[in-house]
Write a structure and sequence with these properties.
Elements (H helix, E strand, L loop, with lengths): L3 H5 L26 H19 L5 H15 L13 H11 L2 H14 L4 E6 L4 E5 L7 E6 L2 H8 L3 H8 L5 H5 L9
The chain binds fe (ii) ion.
Length: 185
């Protein structure tokens, strides 16, 4: 499995990108994200790679789609009942949002304001940012896929429940390792 530094500094030439290998199985995130929806989502992820490799469509869009899904899927582990953040990410959240609960409220508020397809993320400076469709960013810590395909199979149109459930599978060790990636504006 490639580490996150390699992923963010990917120097792949067209023809050789593929989804990062995950350290968990298709059903490991159930019931937060079910096996069937993971399988379907991974096909889309593979699709970005295939189109990039074949130089079909918008190469930047496909490359960003590939990279964002790498970050999305490598931040998960099996569900926990309570899953408060720890380490540097826990410190950032507590210093910027006062508490884990406040952070979740604020993140939800920003996410629900966002319309259309895209991503919501916690950036290194502690702000909550959005991405329309796909775009490469260097400052992502926690990343939430806000495209319909991410929540529809397991949650229908209940995006609030999708987001609330997602906090249960965040792998804080994986997220904390993102601090080691050099940040370039
Ligand atoms: Fe997605």
């Amino acid at each position: 499995m490639r580490d996150i530094i390699t992923i963010l500094e990917d120097k792949s030439k067209p023809g050789d990108i593929e989804p990062v290998k995950l350290g968990y199985g298709e059903s490991s995130l159930s019931p937060v994200l079910g096996g069937a929806s993971i399988k379907q989502h991974q096909k889309l992820w593979q699709g970005y790679c295939d189109r990039f490799n074949r130089k079909e469509g918008d190469n930047q869009f496909n490359y960003a789609g590939y990279l964002l899904h790498n970050l999305y899927f490598t931040q998960f582990r099996s569900p926990r009942t309570t899953n408060a953040p720890n380490g540097p990410i826990g410190n950032l959240i507590n210093s910027k949002f006062k508490s884990w609960d406040n952070f979740q409220d604020k993140f939800q508020e920003e996410a629900l304001k966002f319309q259309g397809s895209g991503w919501i993320y916690l950036a290194r400076d502690g702000s909550i940012k959005t991405i329309v469709n796909h775009s490469v960013r260097q400052d992502i810590l926690i990343l939430v896929d806000w495209w319909e395909h991410a929540y529809l199979p397991d949650y229908g149109s209940d995006k609030k429940r999708y987001l609330k459930s997602l906090w249960r599978i965040m792998d804080w060790n994986a997220i904390n390792s993102r601090w080691a990636v050099p940040y370039r504006k």
